[in-house]
């Protein structure tokens, strides 16, 4: 990420979660794409249970404390795209502040 930030100082860089790397990563990125923000796919598609919501709330607080934008991504049910694109289309609505 440091190489990208140096080569493209004006680019918007987004991390895809990477919470374990947050201490060193926060200064290099503009925001975080937070997949599975309110849903899970294991073992089947469902809303997060209480533990999952607590986990999400914890990381949301940590990311905001670092001044990072958070782009939540939760797959709708049923997904509106064909199975080969199971991860979903790119999120074009979330823009880091």
| Oligomeric state as shown | single chain
Shape: elongated
Query: What is the SS-derived class?
Result: alpha/beta
Query: For the residues shown, what is the average pLDDT?
Result: 78
What composes the largest sheet? 3 strands, parallel
Instruction: Give me the number of helical elements.
Output: 3
Strand order of the largest sheet: 1-2-5
Helix content: 25-40%
Q: Mind telling me the C-alpha Rg?
A: 15 Å
Query: What is the first-to-last residue Cα distance?
Result: 19 Å
Low-confidence runs of at least 5 consecutive residues = 79-92
| SSE run | HEHEEEHE
**Strand segment tally:** 5
Q: What share of the residues does DSSP label as strand, in percent?
A: 15-25%
Layout of SSEs?
Blueprint: H1 2-7, E1 14-16, H2 22-25, E2 31-35, E3 39-40, E4 46-47, H3 50-65, E5 69-73
Parallel strand pairs: 1-2, 2-5
Antiparallel strand pairs: 3-4
């Amino acid at each position: 990420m440091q190489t990208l930030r140096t080569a493209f100082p004006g680019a918007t860089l987004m991390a895809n979660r990477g919470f374990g790397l947050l201490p060193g990563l926060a200064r290099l990125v503009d925001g975080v794409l937070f997949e599975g923000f309110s849903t899970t796919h294991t073992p089947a598609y469902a809303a997060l249970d209480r533990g999952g919501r607590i986990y999400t709330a914890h990381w949301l607080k940590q990311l905001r404390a670092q001044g990072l934008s958070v782009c939540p991504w939760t797959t709708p049910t049923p997904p509106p795209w064909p199975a080969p694109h199971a991860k979903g289309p790119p999120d074009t609505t979330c823009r880091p502040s």
